[in-house]
Structures are given as structure tokens and as C-alpha cells.
Amino acid sequence: MKVGVARETAHGERRVALVPEALGKLTAAGLEILVEAGAGAGALIPDQAFSEAGATVVSTADLYATADVILRIQKPSADEVALLRTGQAVVGLLQPLLDPALAARLAAAGVTAISLDAIPRTLSRAQTMDALSSQANTGGYKAVLIAATTYGRYFPLLTTAAGTAKPANVLILGIGVAGLQAIGTARRLGAVVSAYDVRPETAEQAESLGAKFVKLRTSIDATGAGGYARELTADERAAQQAELNEVIAGQDVVITTAQVPGRKPPLLVTADAVRAMRPGSVIVDMAASALGGNCELSVAGETTVTANGVTIVAPENLPASMPLSASQFYARNISALLLNMVKDGALQLDFEEEVTRATVITHGGAVVSEPVQQLLAPAGGNA
Ligand code: NAD
């Protein structure tokens, strides 16, 4: 079976789905690897490094014409969808819950779509395939570095002959994978870190990394299915907001990472809360995208400074700003997922198997993922 690695075409994307070090495991399983010319360029991996690792570097046309499976990071563009053929499979972070229409198009084209963001994350066997975690990890780390370089003061307590610098107060909102990495990174830089999440189990995790868990007077337990949070009710949101505003006002740096799967990110830092912050404070909104962010004033992809001197950084794709590490981890994730579905050198989908059932979104000309089918059903309203 021929496995192709696509060159990413999304704006600002610098990652690549496989790195040369990851090829050995795949070729040992009898797979032949094709790499689209320039696929590694964003991560500064030359084509030659792929060929030396045993891959064949091919043109875009050859990749789509000959590969049985195409590995990628981001979902294919409309032009790339047009190049895909019946019987071909595409594996990547396809976001079928946010873009069910793409799933419908891939199904109509007879393409098998396999989405890494749909793996059952609490299944321990699937941890090596968890690209959401590996990418969130790089994002959480980078968000803190951006905050530290944007903030005009020191993060650590510093005593020198010229005086003493107070440590920065850093608040992390959302204690998932990115939030935990952000806590650890901010602590290593010497900041005083506090953190908040709507899943109570995260308190212990935050504290074990040296952060103070922010306990609101209104107790909210929004633990949802699969270890994720559920969306808050309007009453819960109002109670949370009022109390969070007080906490935010005292912070030098706020890093927001809160997400609810398949939904608009929750609003945690209102315009009023930003207005109450001191000049020189920094907000890094990791949840910012075209859907909105955790901060009401975020502009996705941009850095803005408010009238009261608060800098709001809203990077759209932090993992792409660490393309080598992010690609290295992603390559392990996607290889593990692929090898889980390969028997005797060919893709063999066993829908009785939990990871296959969850991640195969389209197959045999149909959308086979139930959550995506529901979104596409007329009553779902998203088709
Ligand atoms: P995520 O990106 O979906 O969300 C980030 C965080 O935002 C979550 O902790 C969530 O609770 C929080 N959040 C959502 N709404 C909020 C609100 N209104 N206010 C404050 N915080 C809010 O989460 P993630 O990082 O992808 O992690 C999701 C879950 O998956 C976690 O429980 C994580 O531990 C779990 N996980 C488990 C495994 C495993 O068991 N092997 C592996 C990876 C992740």
C-alpha cells in the first residue's frame, strides 16, 4: 500500500504529517511512503531527508494519483478535495464536528476520511494516537513563552543590586492538556500561577504542578462525556463570569485554553474584565479562531492593545509555530493510528474495533460516523 504525505496548504501551516524518523515503523509494516515535494519545507525538513529515510518524493499530481492513503495535518482545501479519488483514504485533523459538510463531500467522492481528532481520548491504548494532546502540549508551552516576551516585566522574583522585581501573577483558564503544560512552563519561568477549570478533578492536577486552583464561591461541575467539559447553562455562566472578573482584575498575565468540543469556545474574559486589568497586562487567548475565543476582545490571528494598555495576543495556530516538535509528535500519533488499521500491508477497517469506529468518518460512499450523521440530518440544521 502506498502512503502519501501531503504538503500543507492552509495559511500559516508549517507542520508536516510525517517526519523522516517516523518512516521506519511504517516501511517495516510493508508500506511504501510517497512524500509530496516540499512537504517538510515549513518545518525546514528538506525533501532529501525524506528520500534518505526511504521515501519517494513525488509531485502533487503523482501523490494524489497514486497514493492509497494520504496523511495530512489540516483538512484538505476544496482544490485538494477535487484531487482525491474514490477508494482513496485521507487521514488528518479533519474537524468533522465543525465542518460536517466536508465529510459529506468526501463521502460523495467515495473517499474514506479518518479523523485523528475523533479518537476516544480516555482509552489508554489510544494515547499514542492522541494528536489533540500532543499539539495542545506544544501550544500551551508556546503560549507562555509568547506571554513572557510580550509582558514588559520579569516573570520570576528577582533580587538585584538595582532593586527587586516582583514575580508575575499568571492565571491559566482551562486546565486541559494545554493548560497543564502552560502551568508547568509558567512555573518554570518563576511566575506565581493560579488556574481555573469547570471540571473539579483538575484542581489536584493543577496543584500538583505548583499552581493555586481558583475556587469560585458558586460551585460548578461541568464534567461532560469522555473527560471533556460540557457547555455551561446561562445561570452557571453568569455566576462564573461575575466571580472570574474579580480574579482576572488582579492578574498580570492571563492565558486562556478553554474549549468545549464541537462548540464555540466559552467566553471567560469579557470586555469589562479586560477594562479592569492594569496597563501592561497580557492576555494570550489560545482558543481564538474564526468561531471566537475565550476573550471577548480577541481578534483571531492578531495582537491588539486596548485603550487601557492591555495586550491581547490571539494566535490561531500555535503548534505551527513550533513545527519541528509538533510534527515529530504528530508523526508518532498518525503512524500509530494508521498501523492500528493496517493488516498485511493494507488498510483493513474493523468497525468492531473502538478506535476505528470512532475515527472513520466516511467510508464506502457514506458518512459512517454517528455524531457527524446527526449534524448532517436536516433536524441538526448544520448540513
Ligand atoms: P479541551 O481542549 O477540550 O478544553 C480545555 C479545557 O477547558 C478543559 O479542561 C475544559 O474542562 C476547560 N473548559 C471548558 N469550558 C470551560 C469553562 N467554561 N471555564 C473553564 N474551563 C473550561 O480539553 P483537552 O485539553 O483536550 O482535554 C480534554 C480531556 O481529555 C481532559 O479531561 C484530559 O485530561 C482528557 N485527556 C485524557 C487522556 C487520557 O486519559 N489518556 C488523554 C488526553 C486528554
What's the SSE blueprint?
Layout: E1 2-5, H1 23-28, E2 32-36, H2 47-52, E3 56-58, H3 60-66, E4 69-74, H4 78-83, E5 89-93, H5 100-108, E6 112-115, H6 131-150, E7 158-160, E8 163-165, E9 169-173, H7 177-188, E10 192-196, H8 202-208, E11 212-213, H9 234-249, E12 253-256, H10 271-275, E13 282-285, E14 303-305, E15 311-313, H11 323-340, E16 342-343, E17 346-347, H12 354-359, E18 360-363, E19 366-367, H13 370-376
Parallel strand pairs: 1-2, 1-4, 2-3, 4-5, 5-6, 9-10, 9-12, 10-11, 12-13, 13-15
Antiparallel strand pairs: 6-18, 7-8, 14-15, 16-17, 18-19
Question: What labels describe this entry?
Answer:
383 residues, seven-stranded mixed sheet, globular, binds nicotinamide-adenine-dinucleotide
What does this structure look like?
The chain is of the alpha/beta class and 383 residues long. 33% of the residues lie in helices and 18% in strands. It contains 13 helices and 19 strands. The chain has an eight-stranded mixed sheet, sandwiched between helices. The longest helix has 20 residues. The model has no long low-confidence stretch (mean pLDDT 95). Bound molecules: nicotinamide-adenine-dinucleotide. The site of nicotinamide-adenine-dinucleotide has 31 residues, from helix 6 and helix 7.
